[in-house]
Amino acid sequence: MQHNSLATMDNLRRRNTQGQDVNATCIFCGKAEETTKHIVFSCAITIWKDIYVLNSNKERNRWQVIWCAVTWNIWKARNNSRFRGVQFLKEKTYQDIIYFSWLWLSMDSSFQYNYQEWIVNPGACL
Ligand SMILES: [Zn+2]
How far is the CA of 56 from the centre of ligand 1 (A)? Predict the structure, then answer.
């Protein structure tokens, strides 16, 4: 993602793998060209606003895990929508982010919150 190498529609078009007439519009909002920056930072900003409340105590390592869960689930939802015809549902993506954040955070033995505690108040678990 750092080197703008994700196979977003703008990059595929630039690499000329999809032809110039392919629909490069964002699969989530349908309002902008699908670029890495748009998917992760602009379009998904509504998801970030929901997630941001989790960042109450700002523990850096845990926040990085959440960042990975956010970007990975957005990319997964994009691929499911674009290539498998699965309807994008923000709430489902949000729930997936919450689940995978908890799952990955739980791999660290110092994170000792059960899923119910995480769902009810993730900010208190960080
Ligand atoms: Zn969009």
Answer: 27
